[in-house]
Design goal:
homodimer, about 525 residues, alpha/beta, Rossmann fold, Luciferase, domain 3, GMP Synthetase, Chain A, domain 3, nine-stranded mixed β-sheet, five-stranded parallel β-sheet, about 30% helix
């Protein structure tokens, strides 16, 4: 399959139906989008973008983001959807590593353009998706001018094993990694998820409030493209905007991370919101606290809930918890069962499958598994073994194939739907002159799911405040990665090999709700400040 | 994807759930099936079946057919599901051409085994799927003995572009053609059809009364395997058996060709049948007469109807008419809209896309399109052009992408769900010493959809009866291909190039309900006897 096929089919099925709607009320039909996509692809060609070149999008969700995601493969190029929450150092790193030649940027992020142009040698063109012509800068190419000037070109029809995009994630070893996903990788995940049959229809309207640069939001968008749904774009998540969009556009489907659901339910406007059009809510991106799931089920009794578990490297979906599963008290504690497009096993360290109920690493195989990490053959080889993607997550399967995720080998924190790799934060902390050792772990949090917590061993005789360390971190990494809390200790629990035993550290803080039939021995007493 | 992946997933999700049920009441769980499939694959290895070898199944629908369809790819081999309605000459041709080494045959068709063994040089082993050990013949290998003797082997995990099966269809030029379909071809069609979301669920039970050797029945089976449904097998279609199976096993989904629906509705037992468990009926295989569709909709007001249009070469699904479409008076006259996994166009003879409402040939592209015809590179090249499969059907798309099929370039008749190519029947007729020319066309029929009708020009001065020609045909082709009626004429309408103008001939007989905005000029007067 190839992504732009979905646009051709939409034009055939419903040429004059509204395909995109923005929060500001701009609507475009499938015919109009196809026309604009052809011209935008022509514009990219006129800028020298060729087959296999990488084009970045640094933008809040919008109908133009939608056009760009279609026009880039239409032009034969590779999508690089930039995480807008990253700081400029991180963004510059990803643009440079992916040799991005052209970047599309909206009004919110256009201020970053000059510095990115100067820092990234590969970056030659910045196209400004401006809402107001007066904001045009001299260095920048106006998006609408580009469309108007360029002739429409034929669809390059990239597809199958061709790379669709490079999707950056935080790295376990510090540096971000570009996950290379083919058209088949992403479309297999989307088609398989749709085949479960619980969300996204041709007659429906989907709300994109989760960012499109995350593969969760992106995969929901591709699935909606396959289904032929109408798309409503919110530039940022805010409860009032969500309520208004659902009511105004009769939204039927929405992807929300647990934190977003919490914020919606906590909003003083929830009670009066007109949400009767909603048919399904897809949630993913972090563990769903049981109390929050109870609230969501009570608040949306007529809405089908589907949980997806996966990761960028999996296109992203591996398992699904169906609306029917949500009515089963045991099943709803799980991450669901394997999706129809893929295979999942629990394996021991030697790679052998373990029995039902036994803990092991979650591995996944199928056409949805990534091609590899960009320019990182060793990291790729470390996680891909005979087609099996080693997720780094620890879990078990019950007798009916429900997956319970109990821990993360990769030591990742998920806060408000964003992945934070502890190693990356620890690397920044230990570069601070006062810090001798650091260990970064998740603390459970009622709103964000988890927050970033740092346990620090200082250099002898020095003192430093939480605020000073936070300021230091902000200079190096995105603010969502900066520890929200600190403890200062004299020693960290170390293994025989001299590595920090994170599991032990976490048990000192957490009454971990995710631990299943594990046999981790609890230790007594809380270390630290 | 690969077909046996669906079995692994079923074992993980519901190891002890009933996976197969026969009309006689035999039930097997997913665990049992997986165990038996591993042993059957081991048994095939013990017979010398290797990677890429072809294994035929000549059998009515049964749980053993189900096991064979999984065990053959599990063993690394290619499936050849034999049309049980063919005569022995046709079967021998297909076994020989596909170099089938091993054939599985049930009690109904075991009597054909000795002659097939003597006529087909490639055929070395016949495995008898006998229900009663006493029926074992000396030349034959008993199915249960084979399973019991062989150790279970690991899944060969054939998939992706590997050939899943060779599916024989009647040939436009006379000889049958083996359609080579890869795992991705068939599974893409099934996954895409499931993604439309109207039928087959993990909680559901599907009735297989349409034969598994047709790609319609086979594709419904693979889709049900992906969905994780439970399977009920009927060896033959009979209304009482269908009613009993639906009631006894709480069947939720069924694939039925229009002729089957007609027979069910006409049955004196329909009124008392307990069909309340049915949720969806999928129909395909021939045009659905409007009056019959009216009756079906009235008879099953709470059942979602889905029509599929396609062909063996398309894995098989190209378009789907959804339950919602059935409520639209205009849409329900069509064959539905393009399925999410593929692309469809209407083109002129030069291959250029025509406008909405204009007639042209229906062409389809996507991962569902066949690899090609076995050992027929010219026939393959004649229908595959830059990935587009030329269906030979003539139709048009309306403004909302609904496909209306109005004629068949390939001059095919569909009678009771079976395809009959006119050329094949004409070839047999003109070999009769008394026949000078023949033209075979479809006549509309209330029960069979269409019947085979022959218009004959005899040699000068000879006479021959309908019965004599029917007997002659039966000696060469399957009985469903034999003309049901004849007309004897002095001349056939010929084109300037000397070819019979079938369209003109059909108009003499038919008040064709499928002709849409066509502009075929009607001629006056009925030729013939």
């Amino acid at each position: 399959m190839y992504l732009t096929q979905t646009l051709h089919n939409s034009v055939q099925r419903s040429p004059n139906a509204v395909m995109t709607t923005t929060a500001a009320g701009r609507r475009r039909t499938a015919n109009q989008i196809a026309d604009r996509v052809g011209h935008l692809a022509g514009g990219l060609h006129s800028l020298g973008v060729g087959t296999g070149d990488t084009v970045a999008v640094l933008s809040a969700n919008s109908d133009r983001y939608h056009e760009a995601l279609l026009a880039i493969p239409w032009a034969g190029a590779v999508i690089n959807p930039v995480n807008t929450r990253w700081n400029i150092t991180e963004i510059a790193y990803s643009l440079t590593e992916s040799t991005t030649s052209t970047m599309l940027v909206d009004d919110t992020f256009v201020t970053l353009a000059p510095e990115l142009l100067s820092r990234c040698g590969s970056l030659r063109n910045v196209v400004h998706m401006s809402e107001s012509p007066s904001a045009r800068g001299s260095e920048l190419i106006d998006y609408e001018d580009l469309l108007a000037a360029a002739p429409a070109v034929d669809d390059a029809r990239r597809g199958g094993d061709d790379i669709l995009g490079v999707f950056y994630t935080g790295g376990t070893t510090g540096a971000p990694k570009g996950v290379l996903l083919s058209h088949d990788n992403v479309l297999t995940s989307s088609l398989g998820s749709l085949a479960s049959g619980h969300f996204l229809t041709q007659e429906g309207t989907v709300l994109h409030s989760a960012p499109l640069f995350h593969l969760g939001g992106f995969g929901c968008w591709t699935a909606a493209m396959i289904a032929g749904s109408s798309h409503v774009f919110l530039p940022a998540f805010a409860p009032e905007a969500v309520f208004e969009a659902i009511a105004a556009h009769q939204v039927t489907d929405a992807l929300l991370v647990p934190t977003m659901l919490q914020i919606l339910l906590d909003s003083p406007h929830f009670a009066e919101a007109r949400l009767g059009s909603l048919r399904s809510i897809l949630y993913s991106g972090s563990p769903m606290p049981r109390a929050l799931l109870d609230r969501v089920q009570r608040a949306f009794p007529d809405v089908g809930l589907t949980q997806a578990y996966g990761m960028t490297e999996l296109g992203p979906v591996a398992t699904l918890l169906s609306p029917r599963d949500h009515a089963d008290p045991a099943a709803r504690e799980s991450a669901g069962r394997v999706a129809p497009h893929t295979e999942l096993r629990i394996v021991d360290p030697a790679g052998h499958e373990v029995g039902h109920g036994d803990l092991g690493e979650i591995v996944v195989r199928g056409d949805n598994v990534m091609v590899g990490y960009l320019d990182k053959p060793e990291e790729t080889a470390a996680v891909l073994d005979e087609g099996w993607m080693h997720t780094g997550d620890i879990g078990y399967l019950d007798d009916n194939g429900y997956l319970f995720v109990v821990d993360r080998l990769k030591d990742m924190i998920i806060t408000g739907g964003e992945n934070v790799y502890s190693a990356e934060v620890e690397n920044v902390l230990t570069q601070h002159p006062s810090v001798s050792q650091s260990a970064v772990i998740a603390l459970p949090h009622p709103k964000w799911g988890e927050t970033v917590h740092a346990v620090i061993v200082l250099e002898p005789g020095v003192k430093v405040t939480d605020q000073a360390l936070q300021t230091w971190c902000r200079g190096h990494i995105a603010s969502y990665k900066v520890p929200r809390s600190f403890d200062f200790v004299t020693t960290l629990p170390l293994s025989a090999a001299g590595k920090v035993v994170k599991a032990q550290l976490r048990h000192l803080y957490n009454d971990d709700p995710h631990v299943g039939p594990s046999s981790i021995t609890p230790t007594s007493g809380k270390q630290g400040a």
